[in-house]
Amino acid sequence: MPVDLTASLSKRSRYLVAVSGGRDSVCLLHLLVDQGFGNLVVCHLNHQLRGLFSNDDAGFVRNLAESFGLPFEIGRLNVKRLADDHQLSIEAAARAARREFFAACAQRQKTAKVLLAHHADDNAETVLFNLLRGSAGLKGMVPETKHKVGRRTLTFLRPLLQARRADIDEWLDDREIDYRDDHTNDQPVATRNRLRLEALPLLNEIMGRDVTPAIVRAASHARENEDGLEVLLDSLELYDPQDRLFLPKLRDLPEALQRRVLFDYLAWKKVPDLSSELLDRCLTLLDPAQPAKQNLPRNKHLRRRANRIFVD
Q1: What pLDDT is attached to residue 180?
Q2: Are 157 and 143 contacting, i.e. CB atoms less than 8 angstroms apart?
Q3: Closest of 61, 90, 60, 97 to residue 76, by C-alpha
Q4: Tens-digit pLDDT profile for residues 86-109
Q5: Three-state secondary structure along the chain?
Q6: What's the half-sphere exposure (Cβ side, CA atoms, 13 Å) at 119?
Q7: 308 backbone dihedrals φ, ψ, rounded to 5°
Q8: In angstroms, rounded to a whole number, what is the distance separating the alpha carbons of residues 290 and 149?
Q9: How many CB atoms sit inside 10 A of residue 31's CB?
């Protein structure tokens, strides 16, 4: 798997490397070390979702970091309890927990750059998931994203985004590199698992070819259009100085753009589990005859007041 990480990363920079212990993140760490990246901090969050297996994952990552002589950060959090307490899905709670963990690591390690091991097949699953959820269109992963966690802004980098899962497997097998196998990934229970294990293979069979490149390419074209749309929406000055949406300006937009503006606003306000149904409810706030409040996840609300729309 000839992935030249120096094409997108600098050896002079300090990086946090998210390592779960699974094949993808283990491959990324080995590639980084093989290509001469030494200013790395291995980061692992134990989600406590798999009992003793989760503890073994953490031990494996610790030993791997020590074998390379790299500093490491090992965290521990009960994600199931977090999801229950905040009425989140396990996936949303785990994502929020990881970001908080990375933010704490970033503060201690004096770097805000986090390397993630997402690859092209992950990207295709994400595109399908967002498309079928109906709220984000053909939205997939990008090589670099920024997320504000508290007062700190993290930069997430995905240097393996063009690599294929099969190539990663072959690369690890050829070198007899050990990794931890999470058997829950092979169970067709969670939505993402079923997309990977059932939907994508069926699409391949129907089309008679590997559909992942086409899905990823479609998302890339859509992203180019989205970039142009963002420039247009920014020029409309839809926000007031308190970062609330101007209701009169929002009402003047076509419904498709209203939906897009509300999606971006809710995502910016870190409202999780955005769905088409949730956006439909939020759009009713534009009608003065409808209630002036809509409930959001995490006990938040979207309100209409004084010609403004805002989250509280």
Answers
A1: 94
A2: yes
A3: 97
A4: 888 888 899 999 999 999 999 999
A5: CCCCHHHCCCCCCCEEEECCCCHHHHHHHHHHHHCCCCCEEEEEEECCCCCHHHHHHHHHHHHHHHHHCCCEEEEECCHHHHHHHHCCCHHHHHHHHHHHHHHHHHHHHCCCEEECCCCHHHHHHHHHHHHHHCCCCCCCCCCEEEEEECCEEEEEECCCCCCCHHHHHHHHHHHCCCCCCCHHHHCCCCHHHHHHHHHHHHHHHHHCCCCHHHHHHHHHHHHHHHHHHHHHHHHCCCECCCCCEEHHHHHCCCHHHHHHHHHHHHHHCCCCCCCHHHHHHHHHHHCCCCCCEEEECCCEEEEEECCEEEEC
A6: 18
A7: -130, 155
A8: 34
A9: 20
The answer to whether the beta carbons of residues 166 and 184 sit under 8 Å apart is no
Q: Which residues contact 60 (CB under 8 A, 6 or more apart)?
A: 21, 178, 180
**109 forms bridges with which residues in the sheet?**
none
Supply 292's token pair: 């002036």
pLDDT tens, position by position, 222-261? 888 888 888 888 899 999 999 999 999 999 999 989 998 9
Total residues belonging to the chain: 312
Q: Give the torsion sign (CA, 297, 298, 302, 303).
A: positive
The C-alpha atoms of residue 12 and residue 19 are separated, in whole angstroms, by 21
Residue 12 exposed, middle or buried by CB count within 10 Å (0-12, 13-18, 19+): exposed
How is residue 133 written in tokens? 């959820």
- In this structure, what is the dihedral angle of CA atoms 198, 82, 96, 109, given to the nearest 10 degrees? -120
Q: Classify burial at 59, counting beta carbons within 10 Å of its beta carbon; exposed 0-12, middle 13-18, buried 19 or more.
A: middle
Q: Dig out the tokens for 155 from the structure.
A: 């930069």
- pTM for the full predicted model: 0.78
Are residues 54 and 46 in contact, defined by beta-carbon separation less than 8 angstroms? Answer: yes
Mean pLDDT of the chain: 93
Paired with 154 in beta bridges are 147
